[in-house]
Amino acid sequence: MFENKVLVNLYILSLGLDFEIYIPVNEKIGNISKLINNTMFDAIDFEKNFTILNVDDGTYYKKNQLIRNTNIKNGTKLLLV
Q1: 9 near 78, Cβ under 8 Å?
Q2: Domain boundaries, the chain
Q3: CB burial string 13-33: b at 16+ within 10 A, e below
Q4: What is the C-alpha to C-alpha distance for residues 5 and 72, in angstroms, rounded to an integer?
Q5: How high is the pLDDT of residue 48?
Q6: Contacts of 59 (CB under 8 A, 6+ apart)
Q7: Hey, which CATH number is domain 5-80, 3.40.190.10, 3.10.20.90, 3.40.50.1000, 3.40.50.720?
Q8: pTM to 2 decimals?
Q9: How does pLDDT run across 51-61, given as a tens digit for each residue?
Q10: What is the DSSP string of 22-46?
């Protein structure tokens, strides 16, 4: 049904919150990070350059990597720091 998206668990360390979100597989990590930043922190006028990490294996994702070229799949636990 959602072949162009993956459902991930996203933990936002600075807010102490976690969410399940769909992210498009044809998007770059940096764009996803920027979108999350704009969505979560725009209301409190806070901007930071976030890093996305895989909770299970500690993988650090470079901002120019496409989601489809990473090990991110349905159920992956990601940490935004």
Answers
A1: yes
A2: 5-80
A3: eeeeeeeebebbbeebbbebb
A4: 10
A5: 64
A6: 53, 70, 71
A7: 3.10.20.90
A8: 0.84
A9: 899 999 999 99
A10: EEETTSBHHHHHHHHHHHHHGGGT-
